[in-house]
Amino acid sequence: ELLGLTTIFGNVYTTLATRNALHLLEAVGRTDIPVAEGSHVTIKKATKLRIASFVHGSDGLGNQNFPPPTGKPLDQSAAAFLVEQANLYPGQVTVVALGPLTNLALAIELDPSFPKKIGQIVILGGAYSVNGNVNPAAEANIFGDPDAADIVFTSGADILAVGINITHQVVLSDADREKLEQSDSKYARYLSKILGLYYDYHKDAYFIKGVYLHDPATLIAAVDPSLMTYTEGVVRVQTDGITKGLTVFDTTKKRYGEITAWTGKP
């Protein structure tokens, strides 16, 4: 059951992300699903936003410029919506976070018990033992609001993180796109249509004939985690300096013999 969609900046600004969420729900005939608009700024507010329009187009949907949706978002903020759903269904809600983690950090600020009430948070974010994709250190979603990411990772919530070390193994090839384009399904053809610019970006940036399926791979992990293998550990996020957005993954059981920034973190 899909309880709702929340929006956040990243691919586009938050207002446009909300418009796209409403558009997609109308396109698939699911206008019964609510959309809660997320934060327009990072958790510290002064941080400059990184918007990847050069990857996804100025409209976030491959520059297709679809007509505006007729639906409207909830009056409720994304953070308030998340807290409400966690209280309505304690221990049962899975949040699949496909962008910067600002809304989740705000939910934790609203209700410090939120991490214990939520069932699981599945995060698309981080580069674990590999280079980043916005610079050598950082992955895009974590880099988008590293302070929020560190709040979430150290909150005590049950977190399953899917980094680009995983998603770069899941590729939709040019041949796959041709199958979508020739499909009898209007949804498959729609996907082929909006993916054109994304394919062009991957050819220029990664020199591959295909695209990385970051979001679908994360959804797969949420729906059927048995399809992947996992390593347990503690994640901290570097929040400033040349390695801002770096996800440091501690998998050791070593006792360091002194108090560190990792001590006592879940």
TrEMBL record:
InterPro entries recorded: Inosine/uridine_hydrolase_dom (IPR001910), IUNH (IPR023186), Ribo_hydro-like (IPR036452)
The record's keywords, sorted A to Z, are: Cytoplasm, Glycosidase, Hydrolase
Enzyme class, one word?
A: hydrolase
A single Gene Ontology biological process assigned to it is: ribonucleoside catabolic process
**Localisation:** Cytoplasm
Q: Which residues form a coiled coil?
A: none
Which terms in the GO cellular component ontology are assigned? cytosol
Which sequence ranges are marked TM in the entry? none
Which transformation does this protein catalyse, written as a reaction?
uridine + H2O = D-ribose + uracil
User: What main location does UniProt list?
Assistant: cytoplasm
Keyword Hydrolase recorded: yes
Q: Where is the Inosine/uridine-preferring nucleoside hydrolase domain?
A: 1-254
State whether keyword Hydrolase applies.
Answer: yes
Q: What does this protein do?
A: Involved in pyrimidine breakdown.
| Similarity-based family | Belongs to the IUNH family.
- Which PANTHER family does the record match to this protein? INOSINE-URIDINE PREFERRING NUCLEOSIDE HYDROLASE, URIDINE NUCLEOSIDASE
Protein's name in the database: uridine nucleosidase
